[in-house]
Structures are given as structure tokens and as C-alpha cells.
Amino acid sequence: MIVEIEQARPSCRPSLDYNEGKVLRGVAELVAYANMESTDSKYIYELFDRYEKTRYYVAEKSFHASVNPSETDTCTEDQVLEFISGLMDHLGYGRQPFLVYRHFDIDREHYHIVSVRADKTGRKINNYYEKRRATAYMREVAAQYGFTLAPKGSQVRMSKDISGDQSKAVRFNPRGEALSQLTGIYKAALSYDHEGLSQLSCILEDLGVRATLIQTDGGQRITLQGLDRKGNPVTEIYNEQEIGQPLYQMAATSWAGHSARRGRNARQKERVRSLVGFAFGISKSEGHFVNILKNKGIGVHLSKTADTGEVFGITFVDHSTRTVFKASDIRDVISVGLMRNAVATGKWRVEDRGRARNAYVKDARVNAREDSERMRDLRAGVIARVLRPVGQPKGASWSGKVKPDKDQQRAKFDEERAGAMDVNFEDRRYEEKLR
To answer: Would you say the pTM of this structure is higher than 0.85?
Structure first.
């Protein structure tokens, strides 16, 4: 067993968002809690906020740890929960509100603990030598709860972030191995709460993968292709047989599960709604609107007509909570009509000024380079005609003198050195006569 304790944060909300988001996506569940009256999501956030708003300054307010039993451990879930209760009491969090989540998003089930480092009076829980104290407790109760200890030095680890940054999804890397990346990214995209192939394609596009539905003799199939940052294909098209996974069947199963949980995304919808309303209020163009939300971890996908380029659909992919919403889900803050009205009233520029400026600068640089090359050729031709008359010896300088070669330079040096020796010899003979 390995216990990993995350570095403390100024707030418990990121840890709660991570675990509650896993619960909403159906890959985790709340299995235990302590010193709390309810497990309602709203109550949990309000309770932790009250503990964080203390009258003393506490910079490190969050406690987030993961308990990872190994395959060789014989402990049951009840024993793991009993071990977690004893560990929290040993570290000083026995009277604090804390939650225990069981995660099964990977092959190995593990547990996450979330608590707060400030008590009811506002004083900070003592976290000095936390790793050392947790290691000592694990060694003491290992035999009692039936788990084996990891090698020395790795039983309890301190981590900067065990939950990861959910707003930065893993993107396809053209330099890496294609098949393994496509499979991993496709499985990660299926964990998003979405409906249908169109929304799945939007998710994969943000992650650098293009998904295409094809009809074969055996039924419907999905093909995958890797993309670069500009959306250009950088790999060949791989079918389900080459990838070795029933991609369409996996997607259909995922859509059925997400549809059953569709009504549980109220908090995630409110986050997207508020950010979209904020971005629409301050944006100056369509590109500006898309970039603002992209920096917030939300991908914007505009469906446009092929002939006129008019927008007829909007899809938002929130990579922080792994949810997908259409404009109709938040129609009070954004819609196709509002976007067209923004252009018609002058709130949005028809053409993105930044893109137009980049195109102008690029054309200006190309023209300047061509003019420079043309003038250089013209100047070289004029100089050759004026300063190099026909019949001038090869290797001559601008004055017409020919530079001596190495043998001539060496002969001249030897001649000058011999003359200097003779002069010095005569001078010494004259000095001897004077003496």
C-alpha cells in the first residue's frame, strides 16, 4: 500500500471539484464521511467554506490524500476505511469533516480523502512531519489490516498535485507513437459526459484527433486520424481493425450511460453558463470570444454553412468538468441569434482584426523580401559593369592591383629578413670599432 499526500492549497474547492466531478461521470463514489450531517453536494461546499473562512490566517487550508492498495494486499474495503479513519485521527484530523471517495476509473481501485486543515476555532491543524508520522502509523498497523508495505522510502509520498490539472487535457503529439496515443485519447474522450458522435467529434478535435463514421458490410465503424495544432492531418487513417478496439460499440455504450446521468450536471452547466456569459459580454469579435473561453478550459465549436459561412450551431466542451453543452442548454446567455445580432449591431467586428493584421504583415514581409532580392541583383549588375572592365586580371582588387600569392609573399618575407640580418651585423661591427 502507498499513501500519497498532496501539497496543501489555499482552498479545498479544487480537491472537491475533482472528486465530485468523478462521481458525476460515474467513475467514483462517496463511500464514507465523518463529522458531517449530510452528503448533499451543496451542503459539502458550504461546510468547507465555513471552515476556510477563519479569523486566523491559514495559508494551507486543503488536505487531499490518496490511499492505493496493491494487488498483493488482502485487506477488504471495510479494513481500508478503518485504516483511513485511524490515519486521519493519528494525523490530527479525527474531529475534522472529511470525505472518502472510491475511484475505479483505472484498473486498480484506490481511495481519495478530502479534508480541511483549519478547525472550528480557526486554528491550523499541525501538519509538521506529516509524512514521517503517516509512515510510522502504517508500519504499526500493517499486519492488523492485512496490507503489505511498499519499499522503504515510497510508503508515503508527498505530491504537488495528485488530482492533476483538469483544464489541460492530454493532446495528440505528432512526434509520439500514433496508435497508442489515438487509443488512449479516444478512451479519455468517452469519459466526457456527451451525447452522440457530433459531440464526441468536438471533444476529439480539441484533443487533436479526427473521428469519422463510415459504413461497412459489418455495420457502422469509426476511423481515427491524428492532427497537429493547426488541425492538419499528420498521420494516416486508422480503422478499428488496425487499432484493435471496437470504437463504435464503445461509443454507443458510453452514450447510453451518459444519457441516464444527463440531469445531474446542474453545477457544471452553471459554470459554463457563467463563463460563456462573461466572455460574450467583453468579446470584440468571434475569434476573441473563442480565445477567452479557450483560456478558461472550454472549447468552442461553431457549425457553419459551407456556402455562406453562417453559424447555425454552437457546442461547448468544458475540459475542466469533462462535460459538453449545446447553445440551447444555456440559451439565456448565448444563441445563434445573439451572435448574428452582435455582428449586425457592430458589437462584434465582421472580420477579426488580429487575423487581418497578421495576413497583412505576412504579405508585406514577402513583398519586402522580393524587392530586396530584386535590388540586390540590380545593384550587383551595375557594379560589375562599372568597376570591373573587360580584360581586368583575375583576382585583382578594385584598384586593379593583383594580390600576390603565398609563394611570392614568402619570398618577399625571406628577402626582408635577410636584409635585416645584414644591417644588424654591420651595426655590431661598427660598434666594436668605436670601443
So the answer is: no
